[in-house]
Amino acid sequence: MTNSNVRDLFPGALEMMILESLRRQPAHGYALVQHIQQRSNNLLQVEEGSLYPALQRLLKARLVKAEWGVSSTNRRVRTYEITAAGMRHLEEEISSFERMFEGIALVLNPGESTAN
Amino acid sequence: MSWIHDIFRRRAIYNDLAEEMRLHLAERTEQLMREGMSRKEAEQAARRAFGNRTVIEERSREVWQWPTLESIWADVRYGMRMLKKSPGFTAVAVATLALGIGANAVVFSLVDSLVLKPMNVPGGKNVYTIENQRGGFPGQSYPDYVDLRDRSHSFDGMAACEISTAGLDSDGNPAPIWLYTASGNYFDVLKVQPYLGRFFHATDEHGPNSAPYIVLSYAYWASHFQSDHGVVGRVVRLNKHAYTILGVAPQGFSGTELFYAPDLWAPIVNQQEIEGSSNLDARGNRGRWVVGRLKGGVTPAQATADLNSVAAWLAKTYPKEDEGIGFILARPGLAGDMLGGPVHAFVAGLMLLSGLILLAACANLGSLFSARAEDRSREVALRLALGSTRGRILRQLLTEAVLVSLAGGAAGLAASVVLLRGLSAWQPVPDMPIRLAVSPDAHTYIAALLLALVSGLLFGMVPVRQVLKSDPYQGIKAGAAGAVGWRRITLRDILLAGQIAVCAVLVTSSLVSIRGMLRSLQSNFGFVPQNTLQVNTDLNMAGYKDDQTAAIQRRMLDAVSNMPGVTAAAYADRVPLNLGWSSNAVFQESATDYKMANASLEAMEYFVSPGYFQTAETVLLQGRAFTWSDGKDAPHVAVVNQEFARKIFGSETKAVGSFFKIWNGTRIEVVGVAEDGKYATLSESPKPAMFLPILQSPASRTYLLVRSNRSPQDLAPELQRTLHELDPGMPLKINTWERELGTALFVARAASIALGVLGVLGAMLAITGIFGMAAYSVSKRLRELGIRIALGAQRKQVLGTALGRVFRLLALGSAVGLVLGLAATKVLSFIVYQATPRDPLVLIGVVFTMLVLGLLAAWIPARRALLADPLILLREE
Fold first, then answer.
1. What pLDDT is attached to residue B483?
2. A90-103 confidence digits (pLDDT tens)
3. Is B323 left (phi over 0), alpha (psi -120 to 50) or beta?
4. B164 in helix, strand or coil?
5. Which range among B65-79, B443-457, B612-626, B663-677 shows the weakest confidence by mean pLDDT?
6. Neighbours of B765 (CB within 10 A)
7. pLDDT tens across B294-306, in order?
């Protein structure tokens, strides 16, 4: 099932990206997939469907809220919006992710400084 | 509580999700079509990009679920489907467990209400019955009670009461009622609050007959006063004296004894008006039951020591009555240890037997489950092969076991509740409000549920080893023909043999007790109860004074004797084997000091009228019976039984013409010797008894015995008319003597009924067990049997092959059970008269019963084996 060239995302990564996308602008599922793929320059191949379990988890944790509506292209869509709790959660996740990333980079490249 | 909210919103959430995913695919498809794909290509590409829609939807849904709980629920639903698919197995398993649980729920409820529960009053754990050290008899005299109450320091209070009867007239129609005469502090010591009105208190007592008050029981108030709230303050007539109704006791309060539910309570100081005579000042007359409430912090041992320091004082101060007196504390409710001992022994026996029933049921379940697991070995193998874990499969099997045990437990409990309701409503003794206070409550339900779960789980585990061992490859390859190990002795064989042994024990003991019961009914009582009516009259209730009673009793006797069909009639103060008896100390003629310690023996005492021996058909072996000239002024005479004659005079022949003395020094001449009989209980050893002329010591409460050659139904109304012609206001109760015997037979009868029921349960379990095993063995080997038939096997050979093993197990189990059962019945002989295991009829009966059970249970499987059609069977594979 898994393509060995495509790396699995670590747990919570997809949620983080969804939240980040929604912070910029509320969106429905299809738009979210498009957005994430474009922003990652198609480096991340997200199986479109796997978005939905993640969205349900976020809904359950009340980090996002959803509402049925009509899109600009006149389609019936369910639009997701980030909540205040979602904002806070995203901040924490990003800072902890950055620290982890820094740590990994240090281990992988011991000679270099962490130029950003 | 957002999760509760989530549960109810779930359907909406799932619908939203499905819709959203559908729209997603649609949008992607349109996008791809805009990019130039055909609709079909676009749809396929969109689906590929999306992934496995079902899995994704399921994973999305899981977010909202409790995975463990819901997979258990799935197990439950699957288990239900599986059980529904094999209704035979389910029915047998549930019925088996229901029998086991039902029997145990009933017995537990008995134990709970008779032994475990404290008295139903506030702080009931601290209430004790004060009984005599000697003989464990709970009766105390009133003067001793007063001294105990006032001189002991360990009790918050001590109350006395006594069971009594009186005639109550509230509407012009006097009827006999049962009551407690109770000390003034009775309700205060028990800390009971009235339902209506007030209770009487110690402050209401101002000497004999000073407190004309009664308190009604809730049940009597409801049944005889139609729950009228206006009864408080009403004046009724008790034995023709005016009494005021003070109040109504709360529902469920029936005094301190478990077996007795009185109609009302009256102050003990009014004993003279209620009973016609008073013994409040007789220190030697020990008829009161005394209960005391321990002070906080005082242990029963300290209280006993305290009581016995009072006892020492009593013995020193009143040596004539109280020499050697001593007290102990007993649990209240069962007349101290007098009833308590036998009841506890009986209940313990029942617990043992019902435990055996449960054991048999469990063994049965175990073999059923194990047979079923073997039948399902293919399914298990398949599931293992498809990647299921063994733990998951075990969980599934256990879920089924729990389902079966819950269903069985519920069914058993329902049956036991019906039975217990019946028991509570049962009136085993005519004329007296005796009841078995057993009502199922939360304790019973919890106990039954736990028992059901434990036995279900325990025996649902039997096949665990089978499952853990099973090898999917072997399982599927071997298919249904898994005949491996058939010749070996399996766990199932042991379970079946053990179960049959237990059932045979139960069948044996119930047969022994029933046989003993039948025999005791045919044994010689020393009188002939058939064709005789007893008329219970209390002239005191009818308002007659002492000197009038003898005259009216004579007129009653004459009137009855002249009725057509009456062959003999007499009256007596007591009748052998009726409820209650009286005995008295007998001294040698040479005795001068009438202390209890000097008595030669204690003899049953009956005051009888002329004609008694003829009416009772008690054989007079020597001398003469009483005549009308053995009156007040004539010399004191007696008729004694053989045992009395042997013990006092050395032989029956020397008795007539000899003398003996009784407690007050009266010198009595023996004029006749009567045959021995049964007096208090059927299982008693021979007891000395003496019959004295009732004319010489008149009693107002008597039994008129009427022997006739007419049917009782015919004679009774006429008897009542005749007696009411003499005095229309006379309270009467007419019963056949045989029915009154029910009292004496009560214990033995209760034991026989209990054992009989357990025996039937055991038999039913044996049937289900044998049936299960036989059916399984036949179905397992049906193909083989078909081949045998095809090859020309005879019916006998087929049956031998199919059921030989089952019947060998049956024979083995029965033999073991029979031996154990016979050993166990030695215990029975204490309760059931003439219950002897050395009885060829019982032996034959047990063997016959087990054989019939085996044939009955194996009937259907045997038919199936004989009808095995080789062609059809071979075609199946």
1. 45
2. 999 889 888 888 88
3. beta
4. strand
5. B65-79
6. 29
7. 888 888 888 888 8
Assign B865 a pLDDT band (cuts: 50, 70, 90): confident
Which residues are B708's β-sheet partners?
A: B566
Nearest chain B residue to A57 by CA distance is B63
- The size of chain A, in residues, is 116
Report the gap between the CA of B56 and the closest CA in chain A (Å): 6
| Amino acid symbol at B36 | G
CA atoms within 13 A on the CB side of A106: 6
Tokens of residue B42, six digits: 């676009």
Cβ <8 Å between A53 and B51 = no
B56: chain A residues, CB-CB within 8 Å = 49-50, 52-53
Q: Which of residues 11-70 of A touch B (CB under 8 A)?
A: 28-30, 47-50, 52-53, 55-57, 60, 66, 68
Determine, for residues B52 and A77 on separate chains, whether the beta-carbon distance falls below 8 Å. no
Residue with tokens 């309060």: B253
Whether B56 and chain A come into contact, CB under 8 Å, resolves to yes
Who contacts B701 (Cβ-Cβ below 8 Å, separation ≥6)?
A: B276, B536, B537, B538, B539, B540, B573
Question: Which residue type occupies B662?
Answer: I
The reply to whether B826 touches chain A by the CB within 8 Å rule is no
Token pair belonging to B481: 């023909």
Cross-chain CB nearest to A52 (options B6, B49, B60): B60
CB neighbours of residue B130 within 10 Å? 28
pTM over 0.80: no
What is the rounded CA–CA span in Å between residue B287 and residue B135? 14
B16 inside 8 A of chain A by CB: yes
For residues B661 and B668, the answer to whether their CB atoms sit within 8 Å is yes
Q: Coil, helix or strand for B664?
A: coil
Residue B672 is predicted with a pLDDT of 93
CA distance B95 to B765: 9
Contacts 24+ apart (CB under 8 A), B239-243: B239/B166, B239/B167, B239/B273, B239/B274, B239/B276, B239/B540, B239/B541, B239/B543, B240/B167, B240/B169, B240/B542, B240/B543, B241/B212, B241/B273, B242/B212, B243/B212, B243/B213, B243/B214
Q: Mapping DSSP to helix (H, G, I), strand (E, B) and coil, where does residue B575 land?
A: coil
Q: Between B27, B51, B64, which is nearest A49 by CB?
A: B51
Distance in Å, alpha carbon of B63 to nearest chain A alpha carbon? 6
DSSP per-residue letters across B57-73: HHHHHHTTS-HHHHHHH
State pLDDT tens for residues B560-578: 999 988 999 999 988 888 7
| N-terminal to C-terminal alpha carbon distance within chain B | 57
**In sequence order, which residues have a C-beta less than 8 Å from that of residue A5 and are 6 or more positions away?**
none
Q: Which residues are CB-contacts of B800 (< 8 A; sequence separation ≥ 6)?
A: none
Contact between A52 and B28 using a beta-carbon 8 Å cutoff: no
For residue B339, list its beta bridge partners: none
What interhelical angle do A13-24 and A29-39 show, nearest 10?
Answer: 100
* Nearest Cα residue to B596 out of B275, B325, B347, B846: B325
CA-CA distances (angstroms) from residue B114 to A38, B126, B509? 81, 17, 24
Q: Calculate Rg over the CA atoms of chain B.
A: 37
Task: State the Cα–Cα distance between residues B720 and B724, nearest whole angstrom.
Answer: 6
- Contact residues, chain B, for A78 at CB < 8 Å: 16, 19-20, 23
Q: Is B64 on the interface with A (CB under 8 A)?
A: yes
